[in-house]
Amino acid sequence: MTNRHVWRLGLGATIAAATLTIAGAGDAKPGGAQPIYNYTYYNDATHTGVPVGRQNGACYSFGAGVDPHVFGQATPYYETEQVGWCQGGIAT
Question: Which of 20, 43, 58, 59 could cross-link with 91 by S-S, CB 3.0 to 4.6 Å?
C-alpha cells in the first residue's frame, strides 16, 4: 500500500511528527497490531523526482513508530509504504 501525503509544515515539524507517529486505533488490525510504515521523502508535491530521503518504520514496546534517523533529507512531501505489523514490541 502506498499513501501520498503533503504537509504544509516546516521541516522541523515534519521530522518531529514523523518521529512521534504512532498508528491510530483505526489502523490497527484485529488483536491490536499496528501497521509499520516506511517513509520516502521527495523534493516536491509531484513525487516524480528522485527520492531525497528515507525513514524506516520501527516497532517499539509502546507500538509502531519510525526510527528517528533519516537517511538523506526529510521534506514535507512523502509517501508511506506499509512494511509490517507491530504488536507488543514484536514486528511481523
Answer: 59
